[in-house]
């Protein structure tokens, strides 16, 4: 069992330590990326989104509309930049639209 510390720490710092010690950052990034996609793309795109997966820095998005997929493919670098700005860190390095 871990030794108890007698110093007062901010809750945010304690949570960050807990996340690092338990290796939860990857899972949190997956959830945060899904939420960022949903919030940034809006209801119109989300109606045609069937799956959003983050694997090794690559965001895989499955779309049910080929027309929408083609339209979004023209702004892939902008979408990556918007998602990373929303997350506040460099999580997505590549975007694959399926």
In short:
This protein has 98 residues and is α+β, with helices and mostly antiparallel strands. 54% of the residues lie in helices and 17% in strands. The chain has a single domain, classed as GMP Synthetase, Chain A, domain 3 (2-Layer Sandwich), CATH 3.30.300.
Tell me the CATH topology.
Answer: GMP Synthetase, Chain A, domain 3
Please state the oligomeric state of the protein chains shown.
single chain
The SS-based structural class is alpha+beta
Number of domains: 1
Strand content: 15-25%
Question: In which range does the helix fraction lie?
Answer: 40-55%
Adjacency order of strands in the biggest sheet: 1-2-3
Task: Please tell me the overall pLDDT.
Answer: 92
Low-confidence stretches: none
Overall CATH class: Alpha Beta
Written as H for each helix and E for each strand, in order along the chain, the element string is HHEEHHE
Helical element count? Answer: 4
Strands, count: 3
For the terminal residues, how far apart are their CA atoms?
A: 47 Å
